[in-house]
Amino acid sequence: MAPVHKSGPLLSVRDLVVEFPTRRGTLRALDKVSFDIAEGEVLGMVGESGAGKSLTGAAIIGLLEPPGRIAGGEILLRGERIDNLPREKMRRIRGRRIGMVFQDPLTSLNPLYTVAEQLIETIRTHMDVSEKEARKRAVALLDRVGIPAAARRIDDYPHHFSGGMRQRVVIALALAAEPELVIADEPTTALDVSVQAQIIDVLKEICAERGASVMLITHDMGVIAETADRVAVLYAGRLAEIGPVRDVIQAAEHPYTVGLMGSIPTLTQTAERLTQIPGSMPRLDAIQQGCAFNPRCTRAFDRCRVERPDLIARGEERQVACWLYDPAKEAQDV
Amino acid sequence: MSDVLLSVEGLTRRFDVSKPWLNRVIEREDRQFLTATADVSFEIRRGETFALVGESGSGKSTIAKMIVGLLEPSAGEIRFDGQKMDFASGAAMRALRRRFQMIFQDPFASLNPRWRVGDIIAEPIRTFGLLRGAAIGKEVGRLLDLVGLSARDTEKFPHEFSGGQRQRIAIARALSSKPEFIVCDEPTSALDVSVQAQILNLMRDLQDEFGLTYLLISHDLSVVRHMSTRIGVLYLGRLVEIADAKRLFVEPQHPYTRMLLDAVPDLALSGRRRTPVTGEIPNPITPPPGCTFHPRCPHVMDVCRKRTPASVGTASGQAACHLLTADGQNEARETTL
Predict the structure, then answer these.
(1) pLDDT band per the 50, 70, 90 thresholds, residue A60
(2) How far apart are the C-alpha atoms of A212 and A182, rounded to whole Å?
(3) pTM of the model
């Protein structure tokens, strides 16, 4: 059973299907993905390239690039559907109720406007405040995200800032209208490790302070371990496993997650060889029948090749999409 | 035969980043230089994996390019197997070049998209005239098998392969001239973790099989720790520390090394206590005087702002920090008194 929150989840994604019609047929990039994000929670979303992480974020915020489209399922923000809103209404939610941080700070800031202009515009678009008040808020925000001498630097252009500082500006921009949810898509991938650590800390602290929930999309398990409360693992557009970070990292259950964790070199391990998952993730037009992972899985059996596993509840908070954990099978094995 | 395969002494490379001549005259500006690599010295022993780590702009790739002869050093010398690399002599460089190869970061950019895989791998064999006729095709098939692809893949083009498979092709090409030494510049940073594990394991197997020596360049400390025997840490073009791989992570000597270690996300969820990281790498055109790390260093002293520290021996290697030199220790003592 899914955990029951008093006020219900902030964001609820139900059986989300995203498709790309192409000349050679329709590609299903996300296939029945379901998860919740609770109030104030940080949900990590991991997976390899092409697993559908960024697509999930783009679908939620209504920025799927055509011809991609939501072909099924629903997305609810505080119980209200947001996946079928008219463009104008969605525009008011984007930025105001859902903020976004992208990977490359250079592309998410307009090089022709000063940071002040961009921040003030964002604040005034979404909130009814005077120019002066907006500027005051903008300076306070920049100060909060750790930009030294914020009152002076606010009139600089994006190219005056270093990569790490620019990402801080982007975080300030995402939080300018005090959104309830921040979707951060690979926020630190373009940064050096020493800067990455600082940016993660800022993002985590400031969201906690304002009670904003975060959906953190990354391929880096280390970043998830540091930041997230729960983690969802995507494979070939399907959810493989979801649960509290500690459980998933230390005792992964889905064979894909187990393999993924084993393949990451760490600072403390002593093994001479890394565990490797044979093969690679299938292309979207060649996903096997049954469980998408079955051709690479060492524990696959007949059923995995025929029938696709749904998420199976494991205890209060964990769910795994793997037939190994089917109650019927477990009873049989015992 | 000596134990040392490659030695680098006082290697320096400056890039001219001045504005055009007319702008300099009008704006009354001097020429500007960026020192990408400053006075770097190290040795790589036969059969080991020596790693260089550092953040962007630390000069890792510049060093790699100079070692394989793609860039000429501004000062200093490189000796390969006791023989000095002479950039002026084409014939001598050519003879040396067969013995080292390079694997690049981006397998999408390092393979010619218009060439078939067979030709890509055969190119070094043909260039160096190692084999002739049908023997080339056979050798290419063998190399493809070796890196976990199939001999049938020779007819395909690079775009038919995934990132991991392309990196395997790049490795096969690097092996085709039977080199002793391979420079791997961020070989896995464009790959997903599960593919990275496959490539790292392959690199290890090949090293065991052919007794290869690697220079591994990476920004990822976990990869470096997993792969290497010894590690050199670079900061703003200078080597701040060299140590045995296992020791470096247990007892880092230089404050920058410690900071880098503290910045790596903790996957083990051990809750180990870490000092928060501060600051960013300064502009390399105008590096801070003295020790270039001093504006970010938690242990900064007066002497650090004035003089560049020399490298001193440590238990497991060497480090360049005033905390370890006599001057610095004197000052540290005075301030505590």
Answers:
(1) very high
(2) 7
(3) 0.86
